[in-house]
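new request in #modeling-help
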Amino acid sequence: MQLKRNNPIPLDDHIIRYIPWAKLLKDEDDNVIGILGTAFKLREATETRAAEKYLSATWLEYFPNNGESNEQITAAIRAMRASNIDVKPKSGFSIGKVSNIQSACIQSNANAVRIVYAPSDSNKAHVAVNKFPCDDAGLCNLLAEEAWAQLILNCDIPA
Amino acid sequence: MTLQIRSNTALDLWPRDQIHAGQYSQQIAATRKQALQPHISEVIRSKYAKHSQNKATSLEEKLYDVRALCKIRTASVAMYLTSEWRSRFFSQLDNLLDAENWEEEDTPIIEASFNTFLRMIMLMWPVRRPGLGATSEGNIIAAWTVDRDRLTIECLPGDKVRWVVSWHVEGMQERAAGDVSLTRLLAVLSPYDPKRWFIDAA
């Protein structure tokens, strides 16, 4: 399916987001068991960087699916590794269906959220989650636990 | 003089044979009071400074310094932690603040947040260690999970905490969240039976 820049990602499609090690939910023995809500919080401004204006993700269905269920996931993660994201060894990736993410936002009164195609030089499948509330811990946790919670560990995807 | 405990809940959460009392109670109470001071003592700072002769510039150096600071602060309350608890917690800190897996854009854990974390641990006395995480702004996160139920606490500077509970009751999921001062944390968590997170079921 061809999309133009700023076109919304189809509701039945999926997006995948990079989750750093520090934002993975772990048990007391450092076994990864999920995702922390902070993984979906927009970064605040620092001395060297402006505040994030959108959440970054990658469009899963941008990549061909020739029958193998994990083919698109593997391709998307490899694309993210090749992008300007410095993917760390113990990091992870979270997958969510666009309609579920939108529903979670509406449930949290974040009705203005828009999930759009936003290709970049380093990632042709890049997606921007625009107008995401900058400090809604409830929404972030809802995404982490349900709507954007399918977790893939980086170490499980070969180079 | 008997040992002053802030609440009986603390006693309920910790095995009695591991609670220090008796003839050393005054010394322990005084040490505990010192440990709860908001600012690190000059003695601790001088020990920390020996590990950081030059201003930390690389990420690896910054993380090393933060790990050292966290461990030194924890050591100041070590008498209240079992050696195994402390040892495994130090391993968790090493894993969390590992340069190979830390995002360069993220602020390493800030001292004020870790101070809140330590005071939270001493108020709640969890037998189970939390899983550790961190926000991009440098606040440490403590998380406990039992089955599908989850308690997440972000430790903010100044003895403030941001808590989130996800709780299943009679097949229905409930969620609650709030920002409170540390002294109110056990009260706001009481409807969610915090012991089930803090005590090892085994």
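bot summary: Chain B touches chain A at residues 88, 91-92, 95-96, 98, 100-107, 128-137, 141, 143, 145, 150, 152, 154, 162, 164, 166, 175, 177 (CB under 8 Å).
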